[in-house]
Amino acid sequence: MRVSTCLPQFLKLYSEIVIFAGHDVATRLHSHHALEIILSFDSNATVHADGFDYEGKGILLKEDIEHATRSDGFAVFICISPESTLGKRLKVVLRKEKLLILSSKTVKQLKNYVGELIANEHSEKEIISFLTNALIQDITFVEENYTQDIRIKNVLDHILCNSNKPIEFKELLEIAFLSDGRLSHLFKKEIGIPIRKYILWCRVQQGIRYFLAGHTLTQAAHLAGFSDVSHLTRTFVKTFGMSPSQLLRNFSSKVSRTDVLMTNV
């Protein structure tokens, strides 16, 4: 019997972090705008990217990397916003690398902390503090090596506050005080993906939150600004490598939406 058989599956959503824990998770090729920590409690997790397989008990993956994941047994997936302070720091740690195999010491720390999360509810601030201490050795170095253009920050704030409604590009130009071409170029340089793709990323997250809050998938799609449920489902598959229904099937039949813990929804 696998040592993790008795560990519960769960999904926790915060403002800058999403934590999913499940058994025997496999995803098709996909990419999402979040850094990801993959933590396997049984056999090594496998990440397929750029035609290669990478294996480890703990893997840190950069955002916007097309990849497929397989883990046999219990595994935890921690998605971190790359625009958050922790995300910016981790991008400096990764530098130009697409992924990093975590040390056995770090993996042990993370596994122990997962046990804490299962036994006790922790705030997002507490989780971020732990991850920062576990993953970043030299805070001074990383803080000296990331900055963000204030104009792009203002655009990001506007998108995040209005991700469930149509956003006119003209609005963003007025906020940034930039031309169309200059804003598009600077946004992709700073964030790593085009503006419209970023808006779609925010909307699919909103769709998940609405669905897990009790709305039907059709209602969640409309509330998050999608044209219909098919559009939301297609975007979800491209983003996470599985459909919304497949995500829920990764929870056992004993697990219902009441087992999904949501914060800052």
List keywords for this structure.
265 residues; 45% helix; alpha+beta; 9 strands; nine-stranded mixed sheet
What does this structure look like?
It is built from eleven helices and nine strands. Strands 1, 2, 3, 4, 5, 6, 7, 8 and 9 form a nine-stranded mixed sheet that branches. 45% of the residues lie in helices and 20% in strands. The termini are far apart. It is globular, with a radius of gyration of 18 Å. Mean pLDDT is 86; it is low at 252-265. With 265 residues, the chain is an alpha+beta fold.
For the biggest sheet, the summary is: 9 strands, mixed
Number of DSSP strands?
9
How far from one another are the termini?
37 Å
**Given this structure, which CATH class of the largest domain is correct?**
Mainly Beta
As for the CATH topology of the largest domain, it is Jelly Rolls
Amount of beta strand: 15-25%
Q: Which geometry do the CA atoms define?
A: globular
- Helical content, roughly? 40-55%
Q: What is the SS-derived class?
A: alpha+beta
Number of helices: 11
Poorly predicted parts: 252-265
Which superfamily, in CATH terms, is the homologous superfamily of the largest domain? Jelly Rolls
Give the gist of this structure:
With 265 residues, the chain is an alpha+beta fold. It is 45% helix and 20% strand.
List the helices and strands and how they pair.
Elements: E1 10-13, E2 17-26, E3 35-40, E4 45-49, E5 52-56, E6 58-61, E7 68-80, H1 85-94, E8 99-101, H2 104-119, H3 124-135, H4 139-143, H5 150-161, H6 169-176, H7 180-191, H8 195-212, H9 217-223, H10 229-240, H11 244-249, E9 260-262
Parallel strand pairs: 1-9
Antiparallel strand pairs: 1-2, 2-7, 3-6, 3-7, 4-5, 4-7, 6-8
